[in-house]
Amino acid sequence: MKSSFFADLVTGISGFLFCLSLSIVLILHFRPLYVQEIKDQELSSLSSMSETEILEQYDALIHYNSLFYRGELHFPSLPMSEEGRIHFSEVKKIFDAIQLLLIFSTATFFPLAFFRIRKRRFVFFRIIPSISAVLAFLAAFGALLDWDALFTAFHKLFFRNDYWLFDPDTDPVINLLPDSYFLHCLAGILVLLLFFSLLSAFLWHYFSRKER
User: Fold this and answer.
1) I want to staple 11 with a disulfide (CB 3.0 to 4.6 A). Which of 42, 112, 173, 190 is the partner?
2) Do residues 20 and 132 touch, judged by C-beta distance below 8 A?
3) What are φ and ψ of residue 156, in 5° steps?
4) 174, 191, 154: which is closest to 61 by C-alpha?
5) 170 with 79: CB under 8 angstroms?
């Protein structure tokens, strides 16, 4: 019985990691979100660049953070300091890890889920939304309480330097990456995580009812 619950737990955690990493990857590559940010924050006026030019910088950054890209980061129209280059290199390592997690969790979750369903064990479908709910609550609560503090804490946790505190004179790309964009990315990730959680809960009810 203990081994069966352990298998359910491992499958549920694997499913949660799949849902989380997929949500992050989808939102970070969701170009319309950034396009809307350009309009809402009037980035063209603030940066004296056209929307097309701004999107070229954005596309360069997204391409650089792709798991399969191993070249240097070059912005088409913007200079970059050595500190900025180091920071983006550190950011890429995080994005690479998330994309590797997505590949790994995909390769483990679906086979595990298949075998648990074959054994008529559906508990893992309840574990996924349970973990997701805790994470979503903590993230949403922190953002609503003090987004700036949460944003700062995140950077202090994942970076061992202060290179993320960009100087607009040497790294003008910071003018194209307002804090509000990252807040909206977090909101988008939580919405997707909620969707996957609801889907998981639905599947648990479906298979449980079918079994009865």
Assistant:
1) 112
2) yes
3) -70, -30
4) 174
5) yes
Q: Residue 24: count other Cβ atoms within 10 Å of its Cβ.
A: 22
Residue 161 structure tokens: 């330097």
Contact 89, 69 (CB under 8 A): no
Here the tokens at position 192 are: 């997707």
> Per-residue pLDDT for 98 more than 80?
yes
The Cα–Cα gap between 125 and 202 comes to 9
**Token pair belonging to 9:** 């737990």
Q: Which residues lie below 8 Å from residue 177, measured CB to CB, with a gap of 6+?
A: none
Handedness of CA 55, 57, 60, 63 (dihedral sign): negative
pLDDT tens for each residue of 48-66? 899 999 999 999 999 999 9
CB proximity list for 146: less than 8 A, separation 6 or greater: none
How many whole angstroms separate alpha carbon 208 and alpha carbon 212?
6
90: three-class secondary structure by DSSP = helix
Query: Structure tokens of 115?
Result: 């075998």
> And the tokens for 195?
């969707």
- For the full predicted model, state whether its pTM sits above 0.90: yes
DSSP 123-190: THHHHHHHHHHHHHHHHHHHHHHHHHHHHHHHHHHH-SSSTTS--TTT-GGGGGS-HHHHHHHHHHHH
